């Protein structure tokens, strides 16, 4: 997803404000008009001494097209005279039929409109239609009041659904998070326990080995001493000759054994005495962190404020709604409404961003969150907002020699091939009242004949938009109107520069002939925080304009949106 640099705020004027509906507290009411006592239709007819007209006066649930003013059926012209003596029946649709202001309400016209039908000529009176006016008016007010209440009920249902769904999602998130946290903590504790047990095993093995060696040496000495004692006892108990020989052998063995040499056994204070050092304060530390871990916010600190459609894009604007929250960065995500996955499209400190590569007439969902000053975690997401663009994306003309286009044809790159003139848009898709934006991605060698701008029509044979019926800016910042260079200039175009055109109609029809035109447009060209405003005279009116560019050296790359 390629998105434009939003370092400069633009007033584009074509947006859908996403403010929430006004909330009413308990017991709210909205007066549609002063309350007036009204008579029922039956009471009015009885009071006039007339028979109630047959038929249905109103139909529940069908809103009136316009309020029907009071009118008296009278003899208006020959047709009216012919209708004298006829009793009229009000047809069901009469109560919801429009009577435009000033329309003739004589009997023939009302009959022609299908409001009345002739039943008999027995009565010599006409139905006084004026009696029905209060009923019509009251019914209109009731219908309007009911519609307003229905809309507010729908708003309440949506608000209730948002609260219920967000509460359910929050519960699930909390449960999942703390379950994951418990699992992670248990795993970390088990790993730490294994590490400590391994340390115990290592110390035990390393310190017990010398003791084992000493034990073997002592046991060997004990066995040798026992053998020597037994041999000495046998030598003493033997005969004289045999005794001398055994004594000699005993004395020889005893001389080879150092009976006065004993191995050194370490004192208990000199050998390890293992123990576990466990700081119980960690429980308090963990407890404090756990008690402070996580918060439940009734509403996010930022909300999307406005979505503005652009050709092939949507400008998203958001604002901070929590005065106590200091935002350091914002994070914007979007997705198609048919997708289940949001993707990041912007992270930064700005509060607006244009998301490009938007398909026309396709609903997209946007949400934003913020990161507090000095914090690492992101805030809760804003309430997702749905927007779409009905505007046709701007595209450069494909197959034009000297320029390479991106897949969506909204980026043009001046290549090394010979150029045959101006690269125009594929169609006149720029309309007055919109903002046309060019962003220069890369630059090449500038030339005074370079141009970026708009024109009334395509004209082949020109190598620049510095011609009649066109306005443009050169890469050196010079501004041209109908081929004439203006005195005021803009800064030179550099890599990353954004050039915007705002055009609006000033006058329609003929102007002073000395001015040389009969259609005037007011043009504002902005670049690098500076702008020029001028009137552009055309030979004839035009509802839409072409845009174009021309570069004489390769390396220039321009995005249009």
TrEMBL record:
Keywords: Coiled coil, Cytoplasm. InterPro entries: FN3_dom, FN3_sf, Ig-like_fold. Signal peptide: none annotated. The keyword Nucleotidyltransferase does not apply. Residues 300-393 form the Fibronectin type-III domain. This is Cytokine receptor-like factor 3. Residues 1-14 have a biased composition (Basic and acidic residues). Residues 146-206 form a coiled coil. One of its GO terms (cellular component) is cytoplasm. May play a role in the negative regulation of cell cycle progression. It is found in: Cytoplasm. Belongs to the cytokine receptor-like factor 3 family. Gene3D superfamilies: Immunoglobulins (2.60.40.10). PROSITE patterns: FN3.
């Amino acid at each position: 997803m390629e998105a434009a640099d939003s370092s400069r705020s633009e007033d584009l004027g074509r947006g859908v404000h996403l403010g929430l509906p006004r909330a009413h507290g308990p017991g709210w009411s909205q007066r549609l008009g002063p309350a007036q006592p009204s008579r029922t239709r039956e009471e009015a007819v009885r009071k006039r001494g007339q028979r109630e007209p047959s038929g249905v006066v109103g139909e529940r649930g069908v809103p009136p097209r316009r309020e029907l003013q009071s009118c008296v059926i009278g003899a208006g012209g020959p047709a009216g005279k012919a209708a004298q003596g006829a009793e009229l029946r009000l047809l069901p649709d009469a109560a919801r039929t429009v009577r435009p202001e000033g329309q003739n309400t004589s009997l023939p016209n009302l009959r022609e409109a299908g409001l009345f039908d002739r039943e008999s000529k027995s009565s010599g009176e006409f139905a006084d239609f004026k009696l029905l006016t209060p009923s019509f008016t009251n019914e209109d007010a009731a219908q309007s009041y009911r519609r307003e209440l229905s809309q507010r009920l729908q708003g309440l249902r949506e608000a209730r659904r948002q609260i219920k769904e967000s509460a359910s999602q929050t519960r699930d998130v909390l449960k999942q998070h703390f379950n994951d946290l418990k699992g992670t903590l248990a795993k970390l504790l088990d790993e730490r326990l294994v590490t400590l047990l391994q340390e115990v095993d290592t110390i035990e093995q390393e310190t017990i080995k010398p003791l084992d060696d000493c034990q073997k040496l002592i046991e060997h000495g004990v066995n040798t001493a026992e053998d020597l004692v037994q041999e000495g006892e046998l030598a003493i108990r033997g005969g004289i000759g045999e005794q001398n020989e055994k004594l000699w052998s005993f004395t020889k063995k005893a001389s080879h054994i150092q009976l006065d040499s004993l191995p050194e056994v370490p004192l208990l204070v000199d050998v390890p005495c293992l123990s576990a050092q466990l700081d119980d304060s960690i429980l308090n530390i963990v407890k404090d962190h756990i008690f402070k871990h996580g918060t439940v916010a009734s509403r996010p600190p930022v909300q999307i404020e406005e979505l503005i459609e652009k050709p092939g894009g949507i400008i998203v604007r958001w604002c901070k709604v929590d005065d106590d929250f200091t935002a350091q960065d914002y994070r914007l995500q979007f997705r198609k409404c048919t997708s289940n996955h949001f993707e990041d499209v912007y992270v930064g400190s700005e509060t607006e961003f244009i998301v490009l590569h938007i398909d026309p007439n396709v609903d997209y969902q946007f949400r934003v969150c913020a990161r507090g000053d000095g914090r690492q975690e992101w805030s809760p997401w804003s309430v997702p907002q749905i927007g779409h663009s009905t505007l046709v994306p701007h595209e450069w003309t494909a197959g034009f020699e000297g320029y390479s286009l991106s897949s969506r044809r909204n980026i043009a790159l001046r290549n090394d091939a010979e150029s045959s003139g101006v690269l125009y848009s594929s169609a006149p898709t720029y309309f007055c009242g919109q903002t046309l934006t060019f962003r220069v991605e890369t630059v090449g060698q500038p030339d005074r004949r370079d141009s970026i701008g708009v024109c009334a029509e395509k004209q082949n044979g020109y190598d620049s938009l510095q011609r009649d019926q066109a306005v443009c800016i050169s890469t050196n910042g010079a501004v041209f109107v109908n081929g004439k260079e203006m005195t005021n200039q803009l800064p030179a175009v550099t890599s990353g520069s954004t050039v915007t055109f705002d055009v609006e109609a000033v006058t329609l029809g003929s102007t002073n002939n000395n001015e040389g035109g009969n259609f005037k447009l007011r043009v504002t060209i902005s670049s690098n925080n500076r702008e020029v405003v001028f009137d552009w005279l055309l030979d004839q009116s035009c509802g839409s304009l072409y845009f174009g560019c021309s570069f004489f050296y390769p390396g220039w790359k321009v995005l249009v949106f």
